[in-house]
Design a protein that fits this description.
246 residues; alpha/beta; Rossmann fold; 7-stranded parallel sheet; 43% helix; binds nicotinamide-adenine-dinucleotide
């Protein structure tokens, strides 16, 4: 763990070793919070944490035992949880999609978000000083793309969990919101975006005309977890260059 300073918030970012999660971890650290990166790739998490000035733990969000032991290692109440770990795991039309792909995406995106929220929010309630949860969803929860139905279904479910968490945790001063990006340049999408035709097809769906960078997503995540958002809970806000308008 990083230097103990109880006055600063403790932020846990799942899947923070790279991509959106790493950028979110960096943004919170730059805002003065203490940050823990929790990633299934422990080595990459450690490397990212060293770069950012954060701490790291190895956590597989699909395994309750791994979540519990990682949180025990953190050993403190978490003030802000960012459920960012997510996968696409493959793709294809629903009639062809292998069940293993479906099960994998449900395990990481939905079961993982549930498992980590359950454990962390219980700790927040016990500590009695409130807290925030920000779930990284996707505009795919609201707009279908052929071949991504398995992934989009998990993100729609994450949005439902966000609303229930907001309702159930409000009496404890804990807020829960979501951020729903459109396509973002990260290691997850790097392969796809390196194909000029595929990239142009995605760009053509975005009124503002470009694929997001991680820096387009982080400000909203930091805002939703800030005191300025104290009356906002149960929302899922898109950051998509207008794609949901089309
Ligand atoms: N990139 C996009 O276009 C895009 C768009 C909308 C939403 N999102 C969402 O944003 C989030 C981050 O996406 P990204 O593009 O940065 O992905 P990424 O693949 O670049 O990074 C994901 C990180 O999550 C970690 N991870 C994967 N499985 C895990 C597990 N079981 N336990 C803990 N950590 C695990 C990986 O090790 C990796 O560090 C995901 O939830 C994704 O669905 C991404």
């Amino acid at each position: 763990m990083s230097p103990d300073d109880g006055a600063r918030r403790l932020v846990l970012v799942t899947g923070g070793a790279r991509g959106i999660g790493k950028a979110v971890a960096r943004a919170f650290a730059q805002a003065g919070d203490r940050v823990v990166i929790a990633d299934v790739d422990g080595e990459a998490g450690e490397k990212a944490a060293a770069e950012i000035g954060a701490a790291s733990v190895t956590m597989d969000v699909t395994e309750a035992a791994s979540v519990d032991s990682a949180l025990a290692q953190v050993g403190e109440t978490i003030d802000v949880l960012v459920n960012n770990a997510g996968v696409v795991a493959g793709g294809g039309p629903l009639v062809e999609l292998p069940l293993e792909v479906f099960d994998r995406v449900v395990a990481v995106n939905l079961r993982g978000t549930f498992t980590v929220t359950r454990a962390v929010a219980a700790g927040m309630i016990a500590a009695g000083r409130g807290g925030c949860v920000v779930n990284i969803s996707s505009i795919g929860a609201r707009q279908p793309t052929a071949g991504l139905g398995h992934y989009e279904a998990t993100k729609a479910a994450v949005d439902a969990l966000t609303r229930t968490a907001a309702l159930e945790l409000a009496p404890y001063g804990i807020r829960a919101n979501g951020v729903a990006p459109g396509p973002v340049l990260t290691p997850m999408t790097a392969g796809l975006m390196s194909d000029p035709a595929a990239r142009a097809a995605w760009e053509s769906r975005i009124p503002l005309g470009r694929i997001a960078g991680t820096g387009d997503i982080t400000p909203l995540v930091v805002f939703l977890a800030s005191p300025a958002a104290r009356h906002i809970t149960g929302t899922v806000v898109q950051v998509d260059g207008g794609q949901l308008l089309t």
